[in-house]
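We modelled the chain as a single entity of 104 amino acids. Its sequence is:
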Amino acid sequence: MKAFALACKTLLLSLLIAGSALAQEKVNINTADAATLDRVLLNIGPAKAEAIVAHRKANGPFRSLEQLAQVKGIGLKTVEKNRDRILLGAAPAKKPATKPTARR
């Protein structure tokens, strides 16, 4: 009976570990803030996350994952480690400023 209980516990633990690996969080590098980038990406701390946001603001949205390696302190190995965690969506479009219409 002890062997059966141990086997059940082992199976349950294995399923939990496998489930957490499949439920990996993803992040859009063109819209995420530095705190989210720091939390989701591997080998990306607060300083590198801020550098990603600064690079994006200065150069526009990333068009490929490989462009992420242009950020100082981030290499292609880091990009490859995070390939499954990165989404490459468009940055949100800015709404044009509208002039208030005069009421009559």
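As a brief sanity check on the tokenised model: Residues 60 and 83 are 20 Å apart (CA to CA). The two ends are 85 Å apart (CA to CA).
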